[in-house]
Amino acid sequence: MKEFIKDVLIALVIVVVITLIIKPTIVKESSMESTLYENNYLFVNKLAYLTADHPDYGDIIVFKSHIQRDDGKGDKLLIKRVIGVENDVIDIHDGVVYRNGTALDEPYTKEGYTEGDISDYKVPADQVFVMGDNRRVSLDSRSEEVGTVSEDSIVGKAFIRLYPFNQIKLL
């Protein structure tokens, strides 16, 4: 009986530690297609930026927005890709995104075209510029409703898709 209780306690400690580090998340919208689809089940590393100075280009992050959830219970979590970090200058014209004057190679975008027109936007300190991979429907840093994302509002970095099972992969 002692061994059983010991095993249960160890299992509980492991579960608690994992839930402090990993946040399971379900994709609810289509803004990250063709990388992530609605109802994909992901794990998010909540400690990813504890040791790193800032998110890196291309990271897929989950963050708290200022948009109210449909059920009215708090702010909506959004998932987007990091395009720019503090002090980067972002330009968008003719369907192409430029970071610090260099056109980005973005094979992950759904249609290979980015709507909008942004000129010489400098990303503020401790902020990131994010966009969804499905640029035609993504509500992201191009919108005043979302804007740049404070690093303090980042929940974590998505690092693995677990469902559907035939699409399990590291992100």
TrEMBL record:
Family: Belongs to the peptidase S26 family.
Membrane-spanning segments: 7-26
A GO CC term assigned to this protein in UniProt: plasma membrane
Positions of the catalytic residues: S31, K80
Residues making up the signal peptide according to the UniProt record: none
NCBIfam families xrefs: sigpep_I_bact
Membrane topology field: Single-pass type II membrane protein
Entry GO MF terms: serine-type endopeptidase activity; signal peptidase activity
Protein localization: Cell membrane; Membrane
Record-linked SUPFAM superfamilies: LexA/Signal peptidase
Catalytic activity: Cleavage of hydrophobic, N-terminal signal or leader sequences from secreted and periplasmic proteins
Domain Peptidase S26, chain residue ranges per copy: 2-162
The organism of origin for this protein: Lentihominibacter faecis
Gene label: lepB
Entry protein name: Signal peptidase I
GO biological process: signal peptide processing
EC main group: hydrolase
Keywords assigned by UniProt, alphabetized: Hydrolase, Membrane, Protease, Transmembrane, Transmembrane helix
